[in-house]
Amino acid sequence: MSVYTEVERDDLIAFLGDYSVGELVSYQGISDGIENTNYFVTTSEGQFVLTLFEHHDFDELGYFLDVMTFFYQQGIPSAHPEADQQGQYLKQLCGKPAALVVRLPGRGVSSTATLAQCAQIGEAMADMHIAGQQFKARRDNERGPVWRQQTAETIYPKLDTEQSALLRNELAYQQGYAGLDLPAGVTHADLFRDNALFDGENLTGIIDFYFASDEYLAFDLAVAVNDWCINDEGLPDPQRYQALMQRYTQKRPLTEAEKANWNMVCRAAALRFWLSRLQDKLFPREGELTQIKNPDAFLHILKHHRQHPLSLDFN
Predict the structure, then answer these.
(1) pLDDT given for residue 32 in this prediction
(2) Domain locations along the chain
(3) Do domains 9-102 and 115-307 have the same CATH topology?
(4) Which tens digits make up the pLDDT trace of 93-110?
(5) Is the CATH number of domain 9-102 3.30.200.20?
(6) pTM (predicted TM-score)
(7) Which residue has better confidence, 171 or 292?
(8) Which of 199, 241, 296, 302 could form a disulfide with 229 if both were Cys (CB 3.0 to 4.6 A apart)?
(9) Using DSSP, how many helices (H) and how many strands (E) does the chain show?
(10) Within 13 Å, how many C-alpha atoms sit on residue 222's CB side?
(11) Which residues make beta-bridge pairs with 49?
(12) CATH 3.90.1200.10 at 115-307, yes or no
C-alpha cells in the first residue's frame, strides 16, 4: 500500500455519497506496501480502506473483488468490499478505479512472527486452498515465469557481475517451472506479514488480494514461508517453519510431486520478490507516500534456498 494519487476531501465526500456508510469523519494515507494508493477512511458508520488501483483497469479488477468476497463467504477471515447503492463494488475516483473495503480489526505483523502466528497463517492458507478449489474464475499469475524472464532482461544492465550471473543461473534452473504437475488454484500470492491482521496472537483477517491468481498452491505456501518463517537475520527459522507447515499439512498434505519440487518452488517465490523489489528500486514511481522495500532481503533468502533446501520433515 502507498499513496501515488492524492485524494481531495471534497472528491472523497462525493465518492462516499454513493455508499450507505454515513458521513466522512476523517481519512489518512497509508504508506505501507508499494503497489496501489490506499487510505484509511472513517465515517460516521464505520471504518474502511479506500484503494485506488494504479496498474489495473476496470475489466481486471472484478476478479480480485470476487476473490475477496468468495473467501469471506467461505468463512475465511478476510477483508471484503463494500457495495454501493447500486450493488457495485468498483467505482472511479480521481480518474482511477477505486474500491471501498471494510477495515478489519487488528494490526499487521511488523516484526518477526511468533510461532502461534505462523501456525494460524498455515491453517488459514490451507483453508483458502481447499475452499478455493470451488472458485470458478481464472486469472494467470501476472508475475509468473514470463514476467520473471522479461523483468530480468531490463534489470541485468544495472546488476553487478556476481548478481547478474546468479540471476542467469537461477532462471536457467527454473526453466521447467511452468510445466510442473502440481496442484493449482486461486492463490493470494502475496501473503506477507503486512497482509494479515492480528489481535495479539489471534488472526483477525487477511487483506490485499490484488495479486490473487491461479498458481501452484505450493508457490502460495512458499511465498508465506519466505516471509513468515524467517528469523532476525532474515533466514528461515526451523521452529517457525515447523509451526506453519505442520498446521498447513494437517489440513492439506503435500503431494509427492510438491515434495519433489519444493526447493524449486521456494526459490521461484524468492526470485519473484527479489525481482519485483529490484524493479521498484531501480525504476521508482513518484508518490506522496511510498515505500520501497529492500530487494537484498529476498536475494539473501534465494541464496539460502540454493545452498540449503528446506526440510520436509515437519510431521
Answers:
(1) 65
(2) 9-102, 115-307
(3) no
(4) 999 999 999 999 999 898
(5) yes
(6) 0.90
(7) 171
(8) 241
(9) 10, 9
(10) 29
(11) 40, 101
(12) yes
